[in-house]
Design a protein that fits this description.
About 20% of the residues lie in helices and about 25% in strands. Helix 6 crosses helix 8.
């Protein structure tokens, strides 16, 4: 269990907090590029800060403070302009660096500036960096840069702290019960046949590697030559789960909105069916975790809903002073240890784990983990997407 002080250290993400400082060292996805096609001005909240994401009429991306310096008007109602974003109230215009570049009616433009942060687009997603400069490189994770797959984005905002989502990623055993027993129970309640019945776990292991933690499991009926035990799949530090789901590999990025809300940013890839062309689009949709009555969806349809029930069901910020971690929770304990170690690294002025500043390393991140090697990089696929037969979920 954690003390109140330890819980605050891991869950508070505002500027100046230990975890806030750590998470600001990384690029975080905040929207899909397709969403800016629908509306080029979008309010966003990230790490406790209210900001405005916009695309100028010249195509430049900006992320700036949410209030005009003139009279405090919300820039969520701003008008895209070739120079940047124009406040709808009196026309003050801000460029992508947050600098006021035009003040209609005034004889001169005062040298004023609001907060601004770097943004980049990669693989149809838009990422923001809120940390100290110079910014590190935006990591070229495999699915974001592959062009032989159809990709799509699902974004779900959840009323819970980000750490609850990540703890779940280091907890393999929950698959048997949350997705097996509970999943079948709720399906039967709504008149559906039971879901899949996952095999029991015989062994679990967790290996720290350059980019995070490789988690491995050995299930009943599988040999130690199985991919899940020999290779495993990674949790990329600090907040990305890679899921090698059959035919649908994806990332789940748990983006801290603030202390009590998280964006689950799900980036999925699909191999085109034989004879079907690749899509040039990367569509996006916002999912609603609650039904029309305001109740959390029961999880009868898919395992993602079941995971969300587990995250939200612990409350907005889980009371970790009452938990009792057991031997099956050692992945969670290891992950929290890594968080602690990297908070200290940031306090000492060093880059934390998995921050990339070497262009050569960023260009060669797509490496295959050979069966006879210890994990050195992401578990990726050799050549075209070839997935081994396996149950539908490896959460």
């Amino acid at each position: 269990m954690l003390t109140e002080e330890q819980t605050r250290k891991f869950t508070q993400v505002d500027r100046g907090t230990p975890m806030g400082k750590l998470l600001r060292c990384y690029w975080q996805p905040i929207a899909a590029a397709a969403e800016l096609d629908q509306d080029p001005v979008r309010p966003v909240r990230l790490l406790g800060e209210d900001l405005i994401l916009f695309r100028s009429t010249c195509g430049d991306l900006g992320l700036i403070g949410n209030r005009c310096l003139h009279r405090g008007m919300s820039l969520a109602y701003g008008v895209p302009d070739p120079k940047g974003l124009r406040c709808c109230y009196h026309g003050w215009t801000y460029n992508i660096d947050g600098v006021v570049v035009e003040m209609p009616f005034e004889q001169e433009c005062l040298s004023l500036k609001i907060a601004s942060y770097p943004v980049q687009k990669l693989g149809g997603a838009i990422f923001a960096y809120l940390g100290p400069r110079p910014a590190p490189l935006l990591p070229k994770h495999e699915l974001f840069v592959r062009h032989d797959l159809n990709r799509n984005i699902e974004i779900t905002e959840l009323p819970c702290n980000w750490l609850q989502c990540m703890d779940n990623s280091l907890d393999p055993i929950h698959v048997e019960h949350l997705h097996g027993v509970y999943g079948s129970y709720v399906r039967q309640k709504v008149g559906k046949p039971p879901g899949f019945a996952p095999a029991r776990h015989r062994k679990i292991e967790f290996d720290v590697f350059e980019w995070g933690i490789m988690k491995r499991r050995l299930l009943e009926g599988e040999s130690e030559e199985s991919d899940d035990w020999r290779i495993g799949h990674p949790v990329i530090f600090p907040n990305i789960l890679y899921v090698a789901e059959a035919g649908r590999p994806h990332y789940q990025i748990r983006v801290p909105v603030d202390d009590t809300h998280t964006l689950n940013f799900r980036y999925q890839a699909l191999q085109p069916k034989d004879g079907c062309p690749l899509s040039a689009e990367i569509p996006a949709r916002r999912e609603r975790p609650f039904d029309e009555n305001g109740n959390l969806r029961c999880g009868a349809e898919n395992v993602a809903e079941q995971d969300m029930i587990a995250w939200v069901g612990q409350g907005m910020i889980a009371d970790r002073g009452r938990e009792h971690l057991m031997s099956s929770d050692r992945g969670i304990a290891l992950y929290r240890k890594l968080l602690d170690e990297n908070i200290i690294r940031v306090e000492h002025g060093d880059d934390p784990m998995a921050v990339i500043r070497d262009h050569a390393k960023n260009e060669t991140m797509i490496q295959v983990v050979r069966p006879h090697e210890r994990p050195k990089a992401f578990y990726t696929f050799e050549g075209s997407l070839q997935m081994p037969d396996r149950p539908a979920h490896r959460g």
